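Project outcomes to date are best conveyed with an example. Our students and postdoctoral researchers have been running inverse folding experiments weekly, and each run begins with a structure described purely in C-alpha cells. The record below, which covers 124 residues, was selected by the lab manager from last quarter's runs and is presented without edits.
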C-alpha cells in the first residue's frame, strides 16, 4: 500500500477522477485511489492493498476516506473539495483508524450513516 491516498465509495468514475485530482493537489504528489464499490464485504485493510480493479458507480451514500493525510492537508482538502463549485456531491468524510481498518467496509458505512444521522439532528 502506498502511504497517502483516498478510498472512495458511491461515486461514478468521472467524479472519482475529479476528487483524485483534488487529493493529488493537496498532497503535492500523486496519491493512490481505491474504490469500495462492489467490495463492501471486504475488510478495509484488504481494500487498501490494491488500487487495481477499481469500479465506480453512483450510490445514494457517498463515503470518502482520507489515508495518510497530515492535519494541514485534511483542512486544505476539505476546504478545496470540488463540491464548493457544484461539481461533486459532498460525501461523508472519514479517516483510516487502527480500529476501522479491520472492519468490513459495509460496517463502516453503517457506522458513518448512524453518526451522520445523529449529528444532523443536533442543534448548534
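After processing, the design step wrote out the following sequence:
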Amino acid at each position: 500500500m502506498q502511504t497517502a491516498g483516498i478510498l472512495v465509495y458511491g461515486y461514478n468514475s468521472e467524479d472519482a477522477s475529479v476528487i483524485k485530482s483534488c487529493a493529488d493537489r493537496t498532497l503535492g504528489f500523486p496519491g493512490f485511489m481505491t474504490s469500495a464499490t462492489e467490495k463492501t464485504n471486504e475488510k478495509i485493510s484488504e481494500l487498501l492493498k490494491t488500487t487495481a480493479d477499481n469500479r465506480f458507480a453512483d450510490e445514494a451514500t457517498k463515503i470518502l476516506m482520507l489515508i495518510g493525510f497530515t492535519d494541514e492537508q485534511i483542512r486544505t482538502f476539505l476546504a478545496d473539495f470540488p463540491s464548493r463549485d457544484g461539481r461533486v456531491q459532498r460525501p461523508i468524510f472519514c479517516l483510516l483508524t487502527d480500529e476501522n481498518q479491520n472492519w468490513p467496509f459495509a460496517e463502516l458505512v453503517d457506522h458513518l450513516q448512524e453518526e451522520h444521522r445523529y449529528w444532523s439532528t443536533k442543534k448548534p
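The beta strands are 5-9, 32-35, 63-67, 92-95. Helices lie at 13-27, 44-47, 71-80, 105-121. The training component of this project remains on track.
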